[in-house]
Amino acid sequence: MSQLPVLPAFPVSRMRRLRRTPALRRLAGEVSVRPSDLILPMFVAEGISEPRPITSMPGVVQHSLDSLAKAGIEAVQAGVGGLMLFGVPSGKDATGSGADDPNGILNVGLARLKFELGDATVLMADLCLDEFTEHGHCGVLAADGSVDNDATLQRYASMALAQAEAGADLLGTSGMMDGQVGVVRRALDNVHRSEVGVLAYAPKYASAFYGPFREAVDSSLVGDRLTYQQDPARGVAEALAEVALDVSEGADVVMVKPAMPYLDVLSAVAATSPVPVAAYQVSGEYAMIEAAAERGWIDRDRAIGETLLSIRRAGASMILTYWAVEAAISLR
Ligand code: PBG
Predict the structure, then answer these.
(1) Which domains does the chain carry?
(2) 79-108 pLDDT, tens per residue?
(3) How close is the Cα of 26 to the center of ligand 1, in Å?
(4) 265-318 pLDDT, tens per residue?
(5) Ligand 1 test: best mutation among 88, 210, 322, most atoms within 8 Å of CB?
(6) In angstroms, rounded to a whole number, what is the distance separating the alpha carbons of residues 266 and 260?
């Protein structure tokens, strides 16, 4: 007697039906990434004539002014939605004076990109002192060595004016000082630059995943940023409070950073934010996939695509990623 297959007595839900063919999966897909959702973070270093590789971020470089211009144009041609610029000065001091100097490398780099690209892209600048201070903190220090919130705000206001003057469309307030968005907003409005916007790093955690970035900007930080960046052990309520404050102070976009370890936070922010939400896939998120792929332990391209989808699925409308150009090309 032939063996009959054992069938369940009730109809089984056929979850696999829509997975059967590529065409069915394509039709059923709900989340996608557009090239114009992607923002490329870029580094420009003072006093170099050739791009300098960043060891801990294979494929990412510190640019010279000329290579910055070339790479910026290529990124925009690839379809990315914007560029976020970081400066690497050749000299640092206690107050980070290179940050608001119109001849400082970040402002010169911004002006160069604005000259090359005009309004063809959205030009963003990191508004923080850590790349410019000799101690590597995001603000200026008080006599006791702590980071002085309100003295730092004065420096940020001055940076905002320099960056607006250099051509930035959106200023990325990333220093995690209380009141920074409001101070920057008022400084811009006072000089009738109300069209310049603020992309606020709203929940920003004190994260080990920024490790490779420290090499990228030749950071001189000793210690940590735990007295101003958020504690990973805090919950979603604190993150939402940061967002609410930044929005009330005038943030045009809020950003969650890092991305993958904080998808729960991203999802909560995206569900409630009245302004568009960005997420920053940071240097450590990049480096760990590159490193695993280099060892043959992971399928690099699939892993990159999956991370970008996960960030979109959690609700980000924009993603800062060091893979922006290659992802934009493969998505075209
Ligand atoms: C602050 C800033 C940092 C990053 C972006 N803006 C460093 C920090 O907060 O310690 C990290 C980005 C990355 O890791 O890719 N200027």
Answers:
(1) 34-254 (3.20.20.70)
(2) 999 999 999 999 999 999 999 999 999 999
(3) 36
(4) 999 999 999 999 999 999 999 999 999 999 999 999 999 999 999 999 999 999
(5) 210
(6) 9
Helix axes 236-249 and 180-190, enclosed angle (nearest 10):
10
* Helix or strand holding residue 166 (H, E): helix 149-166
84 vs 324: CA distance, rounded Å: 11
Among the atoms of ligand 1, which is closest to the Cα of residue 211? 14
Indicate whether residue 283 lines ligand 1 (CB < 6 A). yes
Using 50, 70 and 90 to split pLDDT, how confident is the model at 4?
confident
Q: Is 208 exposed, middle or buried (0-12, 13-18, 19+ CB in 10 A)?
A: exposed
Pocket test for ligand 1, best of 130, 228, 260 (most atoms within 8 A of CB): 130
Compute how many other C-beta atoms are within 10 angstroms of the C-beta atom of residue 231.
Answer: 10
Ligand 1 atom 8: residue of nearest CA:
210
Ligand 1 centroid to Cα of residue 214, in Å, is 8
Contact yes or no for 152/140 (Cβ under 8 A): yes
Contact 116, 72 (CB under 8 A): yes
* Count of other CB atoms within 10 angstroms of residue 46: 19
Kindly report the pTM of this predicted structure.
Answer: 0.96
Active site residue 257: yes
Q: Is 92 a catalytic residue?
A: no
Cα separation of 110 and 156, whole Å?
A: 17
